[in-house]
Design brief:
The chain is built from 4 helices and no strands. By secondary structure, it is mainly alpha-helical. The protein is rod-shaped. The protein starts with 8 loop residues before the first helix and ends with a helix.
């Protein structure tokens, strides 16, 4: 056939070589492109897996952050409520102690004084007068013992609060405790001196002692107000 077309063998060989080269080249290109496609698919699959892993890790970390945040909020809420309750109970107890020291203490002392005055007025002998004085002294000592019990109670309550309170609150609780102790001491001094002062009818000394107690009471009240302000700040910072 090639002879009829009058095509030289060299051309035929050239065409064959060209066609064969084109086929080989086409196959090579196909192989290369297929390899590229496979590699791209593998890379895309790997990228998708990495993206999914990143997304999964992000979601997991986000959920952990949400749980930690919620846990932190719950802890802060519980801490706030616990501290608020303990502070309210503390000041309620403190108000009771102040009432015992001021109102109830004065009423009790007044009753003891009135009883002494009756006994001393009705005493017909020196022995009866001494007995009235001894009874008065015993009852005033009982008042002093009761007031010291209040101080022990205050210390117990402040120690309970100090466990979870800030350093500043602890410091001011110490101030309050010390101030309350000094107030009780002044009050007890007045009570213990009262018998002698009454016998000697020394109203000036009684008034001086009362003013000392009142002055100390005002100092304790200022310490209490400052403590309340500090506790409010602490609660707001939770």
């Amino acid at each position: 056939m090639f002879e009829n077309l009058n095509i030289s063998p060299e051309i035929i060989r050239g065409l064959s070589t060209g066609i064969g080269g084109a086929i080989v080249s086409g196959i090579a290109v196909y192989i290369i492109e297929s390899a590229k496609q496979r590699r791209l698919k593998r890379d895309n699959k790997k990228l998708i897996q990495e993206a999914e892993e990143i997304k999964s890790n992000y979601n997991r970390q986000l959920e952990e952050l949400k749980r930690d945040h919620q846990l932190d909020i719950t802890k802060r809420k519980n801490r706030y409520e616990t501290k608020t309750k303990s502070y309210i109970e503390f000041f309620s107890m403190l108000d009771t102690l102040n009432s015992n020291l001021n109102t109830n203490g004065i009423d009790k002392l007044k009753d003891v004084l009135e009883e002494y005055n009756r006994n001393a007025t009705n005493a017909n002998t020196v022995g009866a007068e001494k007995k009235a004085l001894i009874v008065f002294q015993k009852k005033t000592q009982a008042l002093i013992i009761d007031s010291n019990k209040d101080l022990v109670k205050l210390r117990h309550e402040t120690n309970s609060i100090k466990i979870t309170a800030s350093d500043e609150v602890v410091m001011k609780l110490d101030y309050l405790e010390k101030g309350f102790e000094m107030l009780l001491n002044e009050s007890n001094k007045l009570v213990s001196k009262m018998a002698v002062l009454i016998i000697n009818n020394n109203e000036e000394a009684i008034n001086i002692a009362k003013e000392a107690v009142m002055g100390m009471g005002m100092q304790v009240e200022e310490i209490k107000k400052d403590l309340i302000r500090t506790m409010r700040i602490e609660l707001n910072d939770i």
